[in-house]
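PROTOCOL LOG
Step 1. Enter all chains and additional molecules of the complex.
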Amino acid sequence: MNADNRYLWPHKDLLDVTQLTGGETLHLLDLAARFQEINRRPVKKVPTLKGKTVVLFFVENSTRTRTSFDVAAKRLSADTYPLTKSGSSLNKGESLKDTALTLQAMGPDVIVMRHASSGAAEYLAGLLDCSVVNGGDGWHAHPTQALLDCFSLRQAWQGRFAGRTLLILGDIAHSRVARSNVHLLTMLGARVRLCAPRTLLPAGVKNWPVDVYSDLNQAVRGVDAVMCLRLQLERQQAGLLPDLAEYSRRFCLTAGHLKSAKPEARVLHPGPLNRGLEIAGDVADAPASLVLDQVSAGVATRMAILYLLATRRGGTS
Ligand code: CP
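Step 2. Run joint prediction.
Step 3. Record the structure below.
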């Protein structure tokens, strides 16, 4: 593919969707659509990033984000090098700073990092000359997940965000996916509703550009899509959820709830899923579910991100 890079991508790093304008977001999504066409070919590989190096530095577990960045980079002919906490000298006490400087000394073009601490990717980006992509940092942000979710919704909604309503359901308080999606979707013109038990709503939610519900039957009425979030089971130990069965009874999305959404409403989940807890198994597997489309969209969207960062010709941010 000969992607048009006359568009001057101004960002050295992708740390949060808040750094993107609407125009930059749509440019990235348009580019992802072109890369998606490559992913449908019998031979899914182009030489676009031949000679470029991408390090996949995952200090926290991941299936989708890590694998799809690896697939995305390889489809563009970049070389990839994975590093996880368990296989690294972080486990011998080496600091994040020394680990990052060591990786940079090997000359990568892009480092994709996931870390349990909010702000870790920004810290790395300030330290390193190469591009840094935030593959999820603590509760703070998951920009590439939000971009791929927007890619999937843009296709499902025939390119139109204005007048559409997304319901985000579940553990909003601890969700970097929710934070990034609320920002990106509202910037693109969609309305966002949140539904969660009070203990799983974030502090300061009153200042978010959303409508908040505690009753799923009301929240789902007339929406164009529902995004279920993984219930982080460790929250029960923290006393935020006295009873999982009660949580499931009130907040698990079922086919019955979807009857009051728009007839063409779609269902998303960033994964991994707890079937029967936040999403009924038959809902996850139904034709309205975009769960696996989101995974495919993740490869195309991450191809676009790597392409823009690894080939950019200017800008300093
Ligand atoms: N959605 C998401 O980030 O999944 P992984 O944790 O498997 O990467």
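Step 4. Note key features.
Residues 143-293 form a domain with the Rossmann fold fold (CATH 3.40.50.1370).
The CA atoms of residues 221 and 261 lie 5 Å apart.
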